[in-house]
Every structure is written in C-alpha cells, then in structure tokens.
Design goal:
Layout lengths: L12 H12 L1 H40 L3 E5 L5 E5 L6 E9 L5 E3 L16 E11 L2 E3 L2 E3 L2 E4 L4 E5 L6 H10 L4 E7 L6 E7 L7 E8 L2 H7 L10 E4 L4 E5 L2 E5 L3 E6 L2 E5 L7 E7 L1 H26 L15 H15 L15 E3 L5 E3 L1 H10 L1 H9 L4 H13 L4 H63 L2
Antiparallel strand pairs: 1-18, 2-17, 3-14, 3-18, 4-11, 4-13, 5-8, 5-9, 5-12, 6-7, 10-11, 14-15, 16-17, 19-20
Amino acid sequence: MAITSSSTTALDVPTLVSQLMAVERRPIDKLEARITNYESKISSYGTLSSQVSSFQTAAKALNTDLQKLTATPSDANVLAAAAGSTAAPGTYAVNVSQLAQSHNLVAAGQASSTAAIGDGTATTVTFDLGTISGGTLTDGIYSGAAFTSNGAAASITIDSSNNTLEGIRDAINVAALGVTATIVNDGSGTPYRLALTSNSSGANNSIKITTSGGDGSIDSLLGYDPAGTQNLTQTLAAQNANLTVNGIAITSASNTVSEAIQGVTLTLKNTTTTPASLTVERDTAAINTAASDFVDAYNALASQIKSRSAYGTDGTGAGTLAGDSTLRLMQEQLRGIFNTPASGGTLTSLSQVGIAFQKDGSLQLDSSKLNSAIATDFSDVTNLFSSSTGFATRLEDWAKSTLAAGGLIETRTQSFDKSVKNHNEEIDRLENRMSALEKKYTREYTNLNLLLSSMNNTSTYLTQQLGNDSGK
C-alpha cells in the first residue's frame, strides 16, 4: 500500500492582511475623497471672494471717480491747480500780481563757524513772529516801521555750551521756533553768516529777535527789531500773495490758495502780465478708467462663476462648484440687479451709457457713448450709477453683503469646513478601528499559519510511520 505525503504552504500573512485592510479602508478612502472635494470647493470660494472684493472696489471707485474734475491752467508756469468734488465746472481768469514769501534775515559774517561768540554768559534769545508796518526800507534796514506780534513768541538759551555759529544754528532748529537757521558761506574774509527764514510765508510771519542776559556779543549778532535796532539785514520781506480771480481781489499768506475758487486749490508759481485762464471740467479720463475697471472686474468675476459652475457637458470637465446652490443664488442676485432699472432719471440702464452685455455674457464699454452721456446730462449719469437705485451703488452693496460676516460666501465656506471637520473626526474613529482590525487579522492568520505548520509536521510524522510499517 502506497502513502502520499503532501505539505501545506504557509500563508503570506503581511500580504493577506494588507489586501484585507485595503477592502476595510474603502469607507475611509471615500471620506478622504469627499474631504478633497470640500477643500476644492473652499478654495474656489476663496478665489470668488477675492473677485467679489475686487468688484466691490471697482464699483466704489466708479462712484467716487464720477465726481472727479480737472483744473487746467493755460500757463503751467504761472500756476497749478487741483479740483475737488465740490468744484464747479467753468473757466476762470486768474491774475497774479505778487507771490507770497517768507521773511529772510542774514547776520554779520564770522571768521569761523565753530569759534566761540562772546564769553558764554547765558543769554535768552526770543523769537517773535508778527507784522511789520509803515516806515521805509533801505538796503534791508527799516526806518520808522512798527512791529505787531501775532502772539507766537518762543525762546532759546545761548551759553558756553552752544555759543558758536553752528551751536546757535542747531539750538534754533531743535527748538522749533517757527524759524529755520542755516549757515551760508559768502566767500569773503568773514564768510560764515547765519541766515534765518520764517517757516511760514505771509506778511504776518515777519521775525523779531530780542535778547536778555549778560552777553552783548549775542545781542550784537542776533538782535533784530524792525521798529528799532536791527543787527541783521533783511534779504526778503515777508509778504502775502496778491491775485484776482475773475476780477475779484484776493490776498493769501501762502502761495497755496484754497479759498479763491470753490473746490479748487491753486498753487501760485509766478506773477502774470496778462491773466491766465483756468478751466475746470469733468475728468472724463478718470471716469472712463473707472468704468473700464468696473467692466473688467465684473467680467473677471463672471468668468470665475461660469467656469466653477459648469457641468462639463462640453467635455471640459465639471467645475468645482457645479450645482452649488449658493453660487447659483449669487448668479441670480447679480442678474436681478442688472435687470432692475435705476429710477429717478432719464437714464435707467447701463447700455444707455455704453456699458452693455455681449452674447457671451460679458460686459463691454463704449467710451464714446459714455462721454456723450456725460457731456449731455451729467446729473442723470450720476443718478444712474450713484443714486440709491444706481447700479454702482447696488452692486457695491451686493458685494459688501456677500463678503460680510454671515454673508453668502462665509456661510457656505463654514458649511464646507464643518463637513471637513466631521469627516476628519469619522476618519479618526475608523483609523482606530482599522488599527485594531489589522492587529486582529495579523494575529488570526499568524495562528492559522502555526496550525498549518503543526498539521504539516503531523502529516510528515504519520507518513514516515506508515512507511516504516509497510517495510516490515
């Protein structure tokens, strides 16, 4: 009788367990795929949020820039001008007979800018600003004039620590007295001269300097009273600007004049021999730029909405937000605003001012049509964009509410975030289960391997024993 011995091959436990765990992990894989999908949606809403913000900025800028005006002088060498939103369009004749200037004084020359002046006895030097009136001026010195203070006096102390020309200069500048001190070199035998300039122009900012204390050298250098002793020489008199606008006389302490024409700031540069003209008009270039930016911002937003909501029927693949209810609501709200006419004026739709939808759903600007509307009836153009029912106003409000806390984008994003959080928590629970299950499978199949090994050993033993018995 023949006995056949067979052996059972041991199981590959790691491979077997790996294959089993791959099946067990399928719920986790599905959850991770959903998380990836939600994160893609969150990213898409982040992009949309940025586009909505840009659109809001463009709508707001359009409202602002509608009120911009330009002020263009006929001679830029005479004056410059800037017009604010309260300016009135028109042409103005400006004649400048005198420019405003600051009071300038210069002290007697010194051989050195660093040598001590006087004996260093503490001396109080007081600078007063005010108006010089009357008298005559000869070679920079007044005779018979009067000085009226405007109450802006301030003092410094000169002593042994700062009684040089440079020390005096620095003490004046640090003290912020309304006067700036510099040292000039005139190239003479005593070249270093202290020059003083009032920080503000205008006739009421003339300088008076008085000293008190024991050092007469400081008084000899700095003492200056337009109505009395003048140890400094005037090189420029403090004076106001004098001009006329449409024949009306105007005086200004500064060459920057903001009261002469409503909403317009003039910067005077030179006097005139014949009046210069100033033209104030609507800044059509700024308005066109703002309108173009508005159109571009809308088209960028619309393009993002379109691509992310696409169902992919044209073979390009579905958008990350295809079928998303919030995105669909945003589209409906935008469509509703554009389809609702503005009220309160003769212009009710954007197409009337050259902003029209194209076949592909994008906006396009016709600048010539916009400029014509601005020239024909600017108030109706303003109403169309900026009134409570105006398109720029309503679209800016829509963007603001969409981006606001609790708005459409934040609410939808929070919903996705919550789903991601819940799925991650479920994955954590399943991962714990997977860990226990993997240990269980490993243990069970390892034990099975031991059992199979034992059976093989038993089979081999029995085969040998039966073989021995048959040989007897």
